[in-house]
Amino acid sequence: MSGDVAVEGGLLWVGPGQTYQDGLVYVRDGVVVHAGPAQPGIVPPGTPRINATGCTVLPGLIDAHVHLTTNSDHRNVIPSDTYRGQVTRPAKLLHGQRNAWRALAAGFTTLRVMGHRGVGEIELRDFIDSGLAVGPRLVVSPWWITMTHGHGDLFYPPYTPRRQWDTADGVEECRKLVRLQAREGADFIKVMASGGMARGEQPHWPNYTVEELTAIVETAHDLDLRVAAHALSIEGIRRCLAAGVDSIEHGSYLDRDAAAEMAARGTFLVPTMAFNDWCQQEGLLRGLTEQGVADLSDAHDRTLEAFAFAREAGVRVVMGTDSSGTLCPFGAHARELELYVKHGMTVDEALATATVNAAELLDRPDLGALRAGAAGDIVVVEGDVLADITRLGQRENIQHVVRAGQDLSAHLRTGLDVLDL
Question: Any idea where the Amidohydrolase-related domain is (predicted)?
Answer without folding.
Answer: 56-406
